[in-house]
Structure to design on (270 residues):
């Protein structure tokens, strides 16, 4: 990735949600290396400040910490005040979480919070920041969806549905905004080494050996997303994940759901 060319097209600032850990922190590292200033958004202020200070020192960039809870109805009021003077050329809608288990046994409040973080927040951010990009005639948006959004996932059903929503929004906007100078890519990672498994209550050891072997590192996932931005509408990192995504289109959806359900039931310890 040519640093100067990338920064000219998608700079000078990138806003990354869920930036305090996992894929979000890795997006921050790779975009800092590409020369972009960073607006880091997450709930944990201390982590944001620590990461921002390190990246500012390592790459001679500017950073801003934006502590905000995307599940709150008025989150954009706090965010808007912190980014009003920033020219955001790249929006990374990365924040999200999931919960495994039988849908009817789940906590409805937690599911509604998931809907807010995974879907409502990126909708609001994309609409508002996308308007500023369109006025400038350039910009980029990364929608972090999931391999789970490509197929039904029993015992992971609500999360899977939110990620299908992210994927469809991103794919639609890829076409719709191309004429406005805005590139949109939807990232569909498979299992990745982040805090996601812990939050989702997934027992990695309970996964089949074949599933454990395809777990990817965050740096490879993010590199694939940034490489695909401006060139592809959907990025599925990893050969095994690409094969799985392709096979999901060939296998009847009902059979797909049953097969995936067996794996997720084991992973959730149900």
């Amino acid at each position: 990735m040519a640093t100067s060319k990338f920064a000219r097209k998608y700079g000078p600032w990138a806003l990354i949600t869920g930036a305090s850990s996992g894929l979000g922190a890795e997006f921050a590292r790779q975009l800092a290396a590409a020369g972009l200033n960073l607006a880091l958004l997450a709930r944990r202020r201390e982590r944001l400040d620590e990461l921002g200070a390190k990246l500012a020192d390592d790459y001679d960039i500017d950073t801003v910490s934006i502590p905000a809870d995307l599940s709150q109805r008025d989150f954009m009021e706090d965010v808007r005040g912190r980014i009003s003077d920033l020219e955001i050329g790249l929006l990374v809608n990365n924040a999200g979480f999931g919960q495994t288990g039988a849908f009817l046994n789940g906590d409805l409040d937690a599911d509604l919070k998931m809907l807010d973080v995974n879907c409502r927040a990126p909708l609001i951010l994309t609409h508002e920041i996308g308007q500023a990009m369109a006025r400038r005639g350039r910009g980029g948006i990364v929608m972090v969806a999931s391999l789970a959004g490509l197929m039904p996932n029993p015992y992971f059903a609500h999360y899977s549905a939110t990620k299908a929503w992210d994927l469809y929004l991103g794919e639609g906007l890829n076409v719709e905004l191309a004429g406005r100078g805005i590139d949109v890519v939807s990232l569909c990672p498979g299992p990745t080494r982040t805090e996601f498994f812990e939050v989702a209550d997934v027992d990695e050891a309970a996964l089949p050996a074949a599933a454990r072997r395809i777990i990817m590192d965050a740096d490879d996932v993010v590199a694939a997303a940034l490489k695909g931005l401006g060139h592809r509408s959907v990025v599925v990192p990893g050969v095994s994940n690409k094969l799985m995504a392709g096979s999901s289109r060939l296998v009847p959806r009902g059979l797909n759901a049953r097969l995936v359900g067996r794996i997720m039931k084991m992973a959730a310890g149900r």
